[in-house]
Amino acid sequence: MAILHIEKLGGLANFGGAHARIRSRGQFDTEALSARELQAVDSLFDSPSVSQTPVVADGFRFRISRITAVGTETVEVPESRVPQALASCVKDEFV
Amino acid sequence: MKEHNIERNTQTTTSKSHEKRCGICTCFIVPSSVLERFASDKKLTDDERKCFADASKFEKEWRKARIAHANFSRSAQSILPSLATAGVAAVPPAILVDNCAHGTTLPGTPVPSPGTSADVTAKRAFVETTEVAKFYQAVFGRNSVDNAGMRLLSSIHYSVKYNNAFWNGNQMTYGDGDGNIFVDFTKSNDVIGHELTHGVTQFSAGLAYANQAGGLNESMSDVFGSMFRQWRASQDVTRADWLIGKEIMGPGAIARGFACLRDMSNPAASHCMAPQPTKFPQYHDGMDPHESSGIPNFAFYKAAIAIGGKSWEKAGKIWYQALTGFAPSPNMKMSVFAKRTRTLAASLFPTQPAVKIAVDKAWTAVGL
Predict the structure, then answer these.
(1) Helix/strand/coil (H/E/C) assignment for every residue in B250-286
(2) How far apart (Å, rounded) are the C-alpha atoms in residues B124 and B238?
(3) pLDDT value of residue A47
(4) Which of B1-5, B34-38, B255-259 has the lowest mean pLDDT?
(5) How far is C-alpha B162 from the geometric centre of its chain's CA atoms?
(6) Which residue among the candidates B195, B198, B218, B291 is catalytic per the annotation?
(7) What is the band of A69 on the pLDDT scale with cuts at 50, 70, 90?
(8) CB-CB under 8 Å, B287 with A18
(9) Is B128 tagged catalytic?
């Protein structure tokens, strides 16, 4: 089990952009995930090469990080691949 | 209209029956490799593995259909002008609105008669999408986003307090906003024009969504979204506010001094929720398209202001031809687009050298 650090990026308003005045971040304990959701999270880290380019114009991307024995792993994936429980843990806020 | 209904029913049935069988995956986005891996994952049940196997097959067929649609659209673009010349009127696109009812399954449930719906969001999505279709037809002679009468589907009330709108390659989707940072994303008609223009770009230049092409892709949506807003209000370039997303600012955003998402007349302004660069030397690969789009946005604004009048009459026609009048160019550089508009300014307005000078100066001012 691990704590996932999650940031929602992009969208029409460019959340988390270099100069953007809004961002959306949160944390999630994987202990709260079902076996299927946990497997979906693992698949995100197992296939980072397919996650670089969003195919949905103005779609959100999620940057997800976890600490493992070998260090911090980070992936960036489109919203459609993120389990709902993770996607809903972020909070939109002004910077 | 009957044909459009048949098309809609077929698509809805396909989508719904697939969802029924496969409620745990999102077919259009998850890569085949991932679906195939789940399809052979022994940790899953037989039903789940079959579901992912079906999804993988569906995903491949859908991608084939999308490529075929793009090819069909290009064929139509070469044929339809001759039909128009012969006096054959194009059938306007069907305008459809579906309600997600705060869920995330697309497209949602069809809204009957959205143009007279008591749901103001449904009515607004219908009316403004209809007007965007009229704008493209009246100003540019384009029949829907694919120039072949593709039906225009909007899904509203997507998710819960969802702060976004997007184009997924087939349709528009609008969130209601959280009521603080943003309100209903259908409230700014430039946002509706923005999302639909992603469709136009997809079926014309086919611009990618990263690096310089990504910035151009986003800029086309802002440029034609703002142009549509000005066309709706019959504004000339001096009366236009050039703001993107003014009406979706929520009370919390307004209280903090934000007037818009972006301002094409002043992309770096502090009243923008997402300020942008204004000169090409500030660009770097990897920059979000919503950031790098500030450079071509500012060029369009400067060109339109220098030309004067209504933005869609000259500057808009030049930009439209640069976007749609060439073979697809997914990885186009901004300098290539700038060169196209300089050339087109001279060829489309040969007796008005001031137009070419205005376009040339606009790009030079942003470093291109």
Answers:
(1) CHHHHHCCCCECEECCCCCCCCECCCCCCCHHHCCCC
(2) 27
(3) 78
(4) B1-5
(5) 18
(6) B195
(7) confident
(8) yes
(9) no
User: For the segment B224-249, what is each residue's pLDDT rounded down to a tens digit?
Assistant: 999 999 999 999 999 999 999 999 99
Structure confidence at residue B25 as a pLDDT band (50, 70, 90) = very low
Q: Is B291 a catalytic residue?
A: no
User: Cβ A19–B275 below 8 Å, yes or no?
Assistant: yes
**Does position B328 have pLDDT exceeding 90, yes or no?**
yes
Strand pairing category for B95-99 and B172-174: unpaired
Is A91 part of the contact surface with chain B (CB cutoff 8 Å)? no
Report all structural domains of chain B as residue ranges with CATH numbers, in order of start.
1-89 (no CATH), 90-187 (3.10.170.10), 211-365 (1.10.390.10)
Chain B CA closest to residue A60: B164
Give me the sign of the Cα torsion angle B78, B83, B86, B87. negative
Cross-chain residue pair A10–B288, CB shorter than 8 Å: yes
Interface contact B290-A22, CB threshold 8 A? no
According to the model, what pLDDT value does residue A2 have?
85
Number of CB pairs, chain A paired with chain B, less than 8 A apart = 117
pLDDT band at B80 (very low <50, low <70, confident <90, very high): low
Tokens of A65: 């990080």
Q: How far does B12 lie from chain A, in Å, by closest CA?
A: 20
Question: pLDDT value at position B56?
Answer: 56
Examine the predicted complex and report whether its ipTM is higher than 0.90: yes
The half-sphere exposure of A48 on its side-chain side, counting CA atoms within 13 A, is 8
> How far is B285 from B363, CA to CA, in rounded Å?
20
Question: What pLDDT does A70 receive?
Answer: 84
pLDDT for the residue B310: 98
For B243-246, the CB contacts below 8 A with 24+ separation are B243/B190, B244/B188, B244/B190, B244/B191, B244/B194, B245/A12, B245/A13, B245/B188, B245/B190, B245/B191, B245/B273, B246/B188, B246/B190
Residue B232 tokens read as: 């709706």
Q: In whole angstroms, what is the distance from residue A69 CA to residue A63 CA? A: 20
Unique residue bearing structure tokens 């679906």: B35
**Strands of A22-29's sheet, edge to edge?**
A71-78, A60-68, A3-10, A22-29, A91-94
Q: Write out pLDDT tens, residues B131-170.
A: 999 999 999 999 999 999 999 999 999 999 999 999 999 9
Say yes or no for a CB contact (<8 Å) between B290 and A19: no
Residues in chain A with CB shorter than 8 Å from the CB of B102 are: none
